[in-house]
Amino acid sequence: MRERGFTLIELMVVIAVMGIMMVIATHNWHEMVIKSAIESENRELYADLMEVRLQALHTKTARSVDINGLQFRVYSTADTSVAPILTKQLRYPVDLQVNGPLTFDTQGLATGALLPPDDSINSLCVNPDGAVTATQAAEDSIVISRTKISLGKRQNGGVCANTAIDKK
Questions:
Q1: What is the DSSP letter of 2?
Q2: Is 161 strand, coil or helix?
Q3: DSSP per position, 66-110
Q4: Cα–Cα distance measured from residue 168 to residue 163, given in angstroms and rounded to the nearest whole number
Q5: Could you report the per-residue pLDDT of 37-95, keeping only the tens digit for each?
Q6: Given Cys at both, which of 56, 90, 139, 141 links 125, Cβ 3.0 to 4.6 Å?
Q7: What domains does the chain contain, in order, with CATH numbers?
Q8: DSSP label at 3?
Q9: Is 110 within 8 Å of 53 (Cβ atoms)?
Q10: H/E segment holding residue 46
Q11: CA-to-CA distance for 136 and 154, rounded, in angstroms?
């Protein structure tokens, strides 16, 4: 005579399958949270750079930006030895090709140590683990030229160089 219900083995198999599915879901959720945070920080950096550029253009006063590790500083003039008017802490480190301030002149054109001496472009990339790696984020880089600031995505390999970034 067979009674209705589940055996202990059937219940154990169902619990094991549910556990495996939870582990997979948790891992994917964690990746999605990191991806979203990288995109958010990159877009915020882009918006801040554009704001500083517009302030320099509208006030006819050069403005400087210094991005160093986990700090983003904005200066009211081209002189970065004075106190910054804005300091932001970044969640993830930013990889720059060249260290030093970026200055927007009175015409809103980018100049300074971040840009090579010729008219080429430079880039900065958000790195979630501090190392140069390719991320799953839709945008993880910013490409800076004298006249334009663009969002970008690093190509496979993760190198933070203007030649290895697809501009959006």
A1: P
A2: coil
A3: EEETTEEEEESSS-TTSPPSEEEE-SS-EEESS-S-EEE-TTS-E
A4: 14
A5: 888 999 999 999 999 999 999 999 999 998 887 899 999 988 888 999 999 999 988 88
A6: 141
A7: 8-167 (3.55.40.10)
A8: P
A9: yes
A10: helix 8-59
A11: 10
Q: 125, 101 in Cβ contact below 8 A?
A: no
Structure tokens at 3: 């009674």
Q: How far is CA 64 from CA 10, 14, 51, in A?
A: 66, 60, 12
* Backbone φ and ψ of 12, nearest 5°: -65, -40
Pairing of strands 165-167, 63-68: unpaired
Half-sphere exposure (CA, 13 Å, Cβ side) for 108?
Answer: 13
What confidence tens digit (pLDDT) does each residue in 99-116 have? 678 889 999 888 865 555
Amino acid at the residue 45 = L
* CA–CA dist 104, 109 (Å, integer): 5
CA atoms within 13 A on the CB side of 110: 29
Beta-strand runs (E) in the chain = 63-68, 71-75, 86-89, 94-96, 102-104, 110-112, 122-126, 141-144, 149-154, 165-167
